Structure formats: structure tokens, C-alpha cells
């Protein structure tokens, strides 16, 4: 299914099941397909599951603009309003978690019941004078330069670390290859713009404003979003956040730790 945003960009989304709505927000370089092991599970539990392909990703249009955090948040808001969703459970991975935080700041929580931030790129990735916990800018810039120079090579070098297979996580070579192919199907322009924007956006002032029930899940072996920079800090900044840390998980825990993740999400969603 598709809808047109205010700037005319056609975005794809998928909609399955009946019941309380869960809106899944994918990470950069991935699309609705990344939730292969979550959506069927939650539909079987009696939930309506909706997943958006952000612009430049999946089946959505590939415009030259709109890869900033504000536009991403506004695109999400347009989908929620188009479907007239209420009491929404927002679940976001990586950049998707950052988009959820930005959505709440720009559009409020009237339609949202609770949120789950998984391996989220929050609160602020880049090291600055007032953010010494961040990743040094030289390292971030070098990684982005390597991505620009040879995207397939950049992905191949990080493929095993993405799932932390070195810690014994049972992720097949076929699954690793499949996920990397999904990443390569994204618009190169969208990848470049999204990566630059997500690592440089500062959410520190707005995270304490979140008053919704919040679940933060992060892997201790996350190479893409190091836990000391992201998950642990995010959980401390959001009032009352429930925090789960997976000792052997990397960034791709939606695959490597799917059963644990689904169970933790379900328990959080059903807790009243």
C-alpha cells in the first residue's frame, strides 16, 4: 500500500492483522522487511502490525530531499494520521528509534500509548565539548567516508559484527547475506544523507520530555551504536524507562535474539 506525503513523495507501508496497532519503524538501510520475525508473531498475538518504508528505502520513492530527522518524523505522523491510529505502540530500531523520539517532540503523544526503542541511535552520537561520551567526530567521519567510497565493502566488513556472531549467536551465513543485500537495495543517496543526519542529531534536551511508558532494549556488543554512548544513556534520560540489556547482542538483535526480543516486547505491551 502507498500514500503521498505533503511534498508529494509516495511512501510504502504494510498493514496486517487486527487489534491494538503496533507501528514498526525500521533502521536506516532497511525497510519493513526487517521485521520478518516480529510482525507475524504479533499478528498471531492479536495485534495490528503496520510497517513503513521511509523515503529512499524499500518500495518508497527516492526523492533528493527529506532525509533529515524532522521530515522523517513528519512522514511517520502522516501515516499515523492517514490511518487514524489511536493508542499506538511505536517500535523503532536504530534510526527508527531516533525518529520516534523526534516524532513525539514535533507531534506530541496524543495518539501514542507507549514506545519501544531498540538499539536506538539516541541520545547524541557525535562527541562534542558538551558531549564527551559521544563517538569522536574523526571516527564517525572516517566511517561515513568509507561508506561513500565502497558501500558493499563497508557492509561486508561489518556484517558479522552486526549480529555479533563472534559471541556464538546462531545467525546463518544465508541470513547475514540476505540482510546485507537488503541494505544494498536502498538508495545510495538516502543512505548517505540518513547516516550523516542520524549521527549528528542531538536529542538530549527532548528525551526527558517523554512521559509515555518506554522500553529501551540494547545489546552490550552493539558495534553500530555502542551501548555506553546510546542505550544506557537513553534509559537514564527518559523518566521511568524500562531497560533491558542483552549481554551477547549486537545491533541486529531483531534477528539474533528474536525470541527474547519478541517476549520482552510482548510483556511490555501487555503490562497495564
From TrEMBL:
GO terms for molecular function: hydrolase activity. Keywords: Hydrolase. Residues 22-256 form the AB hydrolase-1 domain. It comes from the Bacteria. SUPFAM superfamilies: alpha/beta-Hydrolases. GO terms for cellular component: membrane. InterPro entries: AB_hydrolase_1 (IPR000073), AB_hydrolase_fold (IPR029058), AB_hydrolase_sf (IPR050266). This is Alpha/beta hydrolase. It comes from Nonomuraea montanisoli.
Amino acid at each position: 500500500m502507498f500514500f503521498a506525503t505533503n511534498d508529494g513523495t509516495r511512501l510504502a507501508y504494510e498493514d496486517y492483522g487486527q487489534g491494538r496497532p503496533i507501528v514498526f519503524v525500521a533502521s536506516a538501510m532497511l525497510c519493513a522487511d526487517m521485521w520478518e520475525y516480529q510482525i507475524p508473531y504479533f499478528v498471531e498475538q492479536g495485534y495490528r502490525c503496520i510497517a513503513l518504508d521511509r523515503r529512499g528505502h524499500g518500495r518508497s520513492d527516492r526523492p533528493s530531499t527529506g532525509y533529515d530527522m524532522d521530515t522523517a518524523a513528519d512522514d511517520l505522523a502522516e501515516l499515523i494520521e492517514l490511518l487514524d491510529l489511536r493508542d499506538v505502540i511505536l517500535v523503532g530500531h536504530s534510526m527508527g528509534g531516533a525518529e520516534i523520539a523526534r516524532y513525539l517532540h514535533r507531534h506530541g503523544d496524543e495518539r501514542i500509548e507507549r514506545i519501544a526503542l531498540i538499539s536506538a541511535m539516541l541520545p547524541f552520537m557525535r562527541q562534542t565539548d558538551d558531549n564527551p561520551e559521544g563517538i569522536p567526530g574523526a571516527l564517525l567521519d572516517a566511517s561515513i567516508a568509507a561508506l561513500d567510497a565502497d558501500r558493499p565493502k563497508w557492509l561486508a566488513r561489518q556484517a558479522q559484527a552486526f549480529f555479533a556472531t563472534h559471541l556464538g549467536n546462531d545467525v546463518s551465513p544465508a541470513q547475514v547475506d540476505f540482510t546485507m543485500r537488503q541494505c544494498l537495495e536502498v538508495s545510495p543517496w538516502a543512505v548517505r544523507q540518513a547516516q550523516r543526519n542520524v549521527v549528528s542529531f542531538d536529542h538530549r534536551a527532548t528525551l526527558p520530555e517523554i512521559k509515555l511508558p518506554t522500553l529501551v532494549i540494547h545489546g552490550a556488543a552493539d558495534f553500530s551504536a555502542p551501548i555506553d554512548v546510546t542505550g544506557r544513556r537513553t534509559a537514564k534520560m527518559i523518566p521511568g524507562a524500562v531497560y533491558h540489556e542483552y549481554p551477547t547482542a549486537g545491533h541486529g538483535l531483531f534477528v539474533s535474539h528474536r525470541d527474547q526480543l519478541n517476549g520482552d516486547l510482548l510483556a511490555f505491551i501487555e503490562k497495564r
